[in-house]
Amino acid sequence: MSDLYQMLGVDRSASQDEIKRAYRKLAREMHPDVNPDPKVQDRFKEVTAAYEVLSDPDKRSNYDRGGDGFTGLGGGFGGFSDIMDAFFGGGGGSPRGPRPRMRQGQDALIRTTIDLSEACFGTTREIGVETAVICQECGGDGCASGTSPKTCEICKGRGEIQQVTRSFIGQVMTTRPCSNCQGFGTTISQPCRECAGEGRVRARRSVEVKIPAGVETGNRMQLSGQGEVGPGGGPAGDLFVEFIVSDHDFLIREGDDLHVSVNVPMTGAALGTSVTVQTLDGEVELNIKPGTQSGSVIPIRGKGMTRLRGGGRGELYAHIDVEIPTKLSKEESQLLENFANLRGEKSRASQVKKSSDSGLFSKFKDAFRN
Ligand SMILES: [Zn+2]
Ligand SMILES: [Zn+2]
Predict the structure, then answer these.
(1) Burial of 176 (0-12, 13-18, 19+ CB in 10 A)
(2) In this predicted model, what pLDDT tens digit does every residue of 158-194 receive, in sequence order?
(3) Which residues contact 351 (CB under 8 A, 6 or more apart)?
(4) What is the pTM for the complete model shown?
(5) Within a 13 Å sphere around the CA of 347, how many CA atoms are in the beta-carbon half?
(6) Element of type H or E holding 273
(7) 201 alpha carbon – ligand 1 mean position (Å)
(8) How many whole angstroms from 231 Cα to the centroid of ligand 1?
């Protein structure tokens, strides 16, 4: 074999840059597009092989120490992409060499439904999750016990095969993934029976999730490293738990506040009374002042939702619905007639009320339920 430095026309002390420049100059002159002469093409292959060795510091020092620079490195010619790298500066091109068997796992998403009370006070849940987990049988390498991956005989561990193809610019080298090893550079002749060589298996397990107080539908919690284990037993992705807060029977949520509809008998609204309101904290006595109108809103401080950030509680708003009796006994009718007479309201019965503010809550309710 002739001297590789001579082939490129550079000194033994040439820098990497000088080697690159020399090769580019030769490649421009000898490229099949420019010079299709077979003799020139043979030399071009040698020059490229020389460049392949001298442009790699490891191969170059091996060659300098008396090796031929090619041993154990899969043989000379570097392929079309190397030529392109030399022409265009390369570096950021397609990744070369075998792809790793072990790869990062995917994130996983699971949804869980909680009720309003759990959302308000927080809770701990055991959630069943099905993800890929590392194969216990092989520990993730995918090999039957006592065996290990072997270097691929077809690509000699490079993970790719070089091919000469004819194209419009002449004969070019292209590389494609090795089909014998799927580009891994190694083959598993005896795959693990448990995972069929994947290094991971699907399994159901239970994850304890501490749900913080104040979550809303759509909030997600990230449990790092609890997602899918990657191929070849690669590191697991994250597990995202998304919450769905189910509707409450009578409490309606608006951010950190709650709303509730409270029925007050007509007489109680007129005379004043106290009613019992169900809240997330149990029953609360609500004082109704004399003359309370239908549609009026009474805040009950600190009985709303827990604020997810910053703590504290929102308010609970009681929307008053004054109940007008629908069925009256003779005696009740008589009493109300007398009452109306006393207030001189008989003649005003057909008067048009300017704007009814009753039913505000039902409108509010509709806006949230629809
Ligand atoms: Zn296995
Ligand atoms: Zn291969």
Answers:
(1) exposed
(2) 999 888 877 776 777 778 889 999 999 999 999 999 9
(3) none
(4) 0.61
(5) 3
(6) strand 273-279
(7) 8
(8) 11
